[in-house]
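Lab meeting minutes (informal)
Scribe: AK
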Amino acid sequence: MSVSPSARRARGRLAVMAAGLVAGALALAGCSSSDDGGTSATTGSTSTAGATDSFPVTVTSALGSATIKSEPKRVVTWGWSAQDAVLALGVVPVAMPKNTYGGDADGVLPWDADAIKGLGGTTPQLLSGGDTGQVPFEEIVKAKPDVILAPYSGLTQDDYATLSKIAPVVAYPDKPWATSWQDQTTIIGKALGRSAEAEKLVSDTNAKVTTLGAKYPVLKGKTFVYATTNAADKLTIYRASDPRVQLLTQLGMVVSPSVKALDAKPDDSYFFQVSYENLSKIDTDVLVAYFGDQKSADAFVKDPLVAAMPSVKSGAFAPIVGESFVMASSAPTVLSIPWMLDQYVPQLAAAAEKAE
């Protein structure tokens, strides 16, 4: 679930090219939206509670500041999981990314589909590029957003500048793909004028994670490495700043010191890679890794160098298997955490019990 350097360079070029296209598309959208720019009864609808904060509100990000003049009615989300917080706050976006990985036949993640149904909404416009990170500028123009929410994304400065011609853009506060689910929720809550509701969602979800951790005391203090295999003969390891790693530390686990020891460029991104020939340098109680299917997980542990790892040899290996589960754990949110954690934590605890 990482984005390659070549893909990032391509996005930058596309953003520059798109700036001119956006201007034309905005003009066309303005000509065709005289009567249909309001909130529909389903897509783009909100809960009856509505915003409780006052407007205008300004949200500052690493890429710039966005001033939202009034309560947004037409919300567009970008990135892996912003739509989760929006839906949890009672708002159905008018557009959100299509998830071919982990989503249903339409490209909607299962917990999002449940939330949309619960709000009495219909499937929003699904934006292309969700799997590649390439921002579909013209599609976003057609959605006629009041605000674009992307606090957990890989937006570039060029992307931000182009999108800001369409509507106020709320990007990440520090680094791309590094916003905690707690911060993502409160940032989106502020943008939607629902700060108190967002704080409660964070508090309730934190309490759930804490309760689960206490239910399985074997997890407390156990070291772990969070990894995947998206390159031949290399293990991709996620840094301590990544939200998926932080979720396990919330359960009481500790990031293995060997992660930092093997990390040659700690400020580079949210992950780094270790060749299989150096797997013996990984010292951890538990190994966590994700796979799209069971076949991939089985193939991983059959590799002799992987099988020789003490955590794998002892059975202290806790794979996350299945695309929806991978998405739920890779981009944890107030919606995906309850959806997946009850099922995964018992497996994680069972692995921790076998740690040498």
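Next up, CB showed the second protein from the same session:
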Amino acid sequence: MLLSSPFILYSDGKGNIFEDTSLYTTGRSGWDAIPVPAEDWILLPDGGSLYELPGRRGIGIDVITGEMRLCEKGWAVAAFIPPAHTGLYLAAYETGPDAPTLPLFCYTAAGWHDGQFYVPAVRIEQDVRQDCAGYDWDVINAGVENILKAYPQNRLIKHLAENCCLTYHCPAARNYFMGRWECPVPSSPACNANCIGCISFQPQEEAIPSTQDRLSFKPTAEEIVEFTVPHLQEAPYPIVSFGQGCEGEPLLMWETIRESILEMRKHTPRGSININTNGSKPAAVRALCEAGLDSIRVSMNSARAAVYEAYYRPNNYRFEDIVESLRVVRSFGGWASINYFVFPGMTDSVEEYEALRKLIGDTDLTMIQWRNFNIDPDWYLGKIGVVETGEFMGVKQLMELIAEEFPRVRFGYFNPPMERIRGRYEADFAH
């Protein structure tokens, strides 16, 4: 543990990063730059990376005077922290008038101490499924070649191989081609939300590109079943997951998904069948549960309807529908998670805390996946019209309060396999 904050980082605009030993790093919560408690800093995890933030000057604390001031030596720097870790503070900076909108990544504070990079974060998940060290490109490339040969006509396999795995290096797709764990199943080219930070579709008039191309066809149940059944039968800790970052809303294809689940379960009872969704169609969720759906993960930026709807801009559904979808899965005894986009200063505000408590109580929620929010912080707050974020408690304290009040609610970053769902959640799955 550090005894003080690390030094601030800056970039020279040419890909080089330096420390400024006259300034300690601060963190951002909401709109404000604040000191980061020394105990919140951890080493930048393996698989993390650093970004230059063009047009922005980092805000630091002068090591002599203790006053906050800008680092004028270069552009601000932020960290991308890898899956399984949740950031506690954003990078703090002042944005210049001509600064470009940042792409759709997370922007955690970062600093330098004693020859190493540090970030304010916690490892929220012990599962190693997306740890950088676990990927072997020789195995992945061999898997891609073999599986493409095995399913030469399957459009979904082609999409997962050429786009998801080899172009975008999607962790779930790489795991699938290594024959293990969670198998991604994109299923819908269309969506019924217009999320501000959509990673697969951005209107042409927006200044930011989507981070990947969206699925361009409607898969058939036959295409889905063809490769998911062998995965369920053979992979360790197998999960089949509908709803991926490269598609729209899978519940719009619920009939095809229902048919796929029924067919999968004719072949094998093994593994878990999950859907990642906006939860907009509770009746469709009920039909999927009746067919054999085991778990759901509903994405949300907020447990408050007004903040949720400002970001998701839903078509023909309301916040209450997503709450009902979680309730439906729990009524079947299924595993109900939220994919909770953590934005320090918003997520840990007093208002949001009260709304999250209500959501947990209303739905009998099973799990919170504390996900880093991939979005330009200024752009996001501006788009949803938040000028004042209000009183906040700190992300770590929020987690502690929720854990204390709701000890049955699991914390993590990934959809658990059936082995964990069935009561061995904390077993030696990480090894």
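CB comment: The chain has a mean pLDDT of 92.
No objections, moving on.
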